[in-house]
Amino acid sequence: MKALVFHGPGQSAWEEVPDPAVKEPTDVIVRVEAVTICGTDLHILKGDVPEVQPGTVLGHEAVGEIVEVGSDVRSVRPGDRVLVSCISSCGRCRFCRERMYGQCRGGGGWILGHLIDGTQAEYVRVPFADLSVHPLPGVLDSKDAVLLADIFPTGYEVGVLNGRVRPGDTVAVVGAGPIGLAAIATARLFSPERIIAVDLAPARLEAAHRFGADAVADVHEAPAQLVADLTDGLGADVVIEAVGLPESFELCTRMVRPGGHVANVGVHGRPATLHLEDLWIKNVTITTGLVDTFSTPTLLRMAAAGRLPTAQLVTHTFPLDHMEEAYDFFRRAGETAALKVVLGGEQHEVAVPTA
Known about the structure:
By secondary structure, the protein is an alpha/beta fold. It is built from 14 helices and 15 strands.
């Protein structure tokens, strides 16, 4: 089969690799129908995630069809169409019993495209299938459903739920990429008074308006002052960091009100300064986290009912074997205005850069 293989920082190739096989009785093999590229994949290619070894197939999100199951798998069978979660769960360790699947100590957690071969391939082996794949409602298009493997659960769990968004809150989201937009869309479920989006790309700020932001601010145009002006000088109740840069994290800590929450979602490759000389007196709660995907079944039901704007996030589609082209396109999102790039699925349109 063909797969996108990581060969070290800055090096990857769509090439022939051995077909995956069932290794454990809890495994399944999935024929991949649709995948997407995550910002984390770009971090891996930059060398920011040194645990990923050369020779690893990248990718941790997919929709596909079960073609083989291990002897202990009970929830799916060959022919079932499923969502492959970005998180695998053994279901037995302490953290899995507490629904902290991302911290699994039984061989799961974020392993696909990280510690084992991932989903950006024609076939993928998924461990712990009974808790790590989800049967898909027939009404969901593959290119919409694949966004529920990581993007929406991450924005919702690590951003909105960790940030404890409540009715009437002012919510600021720094970073209007896919994760930030998912956080905006799911924050609206809690009826905040206002949502403010901050980014440096005009196209992403326009997208933030479409996803429900009430106000937007260019990162270079004093966004902290805008938040202060809209809140009578108090600051935002919840600030969600969805970039992963020291500057964006430090901006979030300047925008939050006393007693507020900063929910860090971004993947950081460099240290950020924690200004405790300013924050110690403000009763601020700062959370970090890897998504656990405990919300995936709920989000699937909401998407099937048309309650999540998944389709609006997919701006470009490619055939599965155009993986290298799609990576280049997604990497240049500032030029191409790409939000989410999906490969495979029901529609196969080679994207053309927008002016």
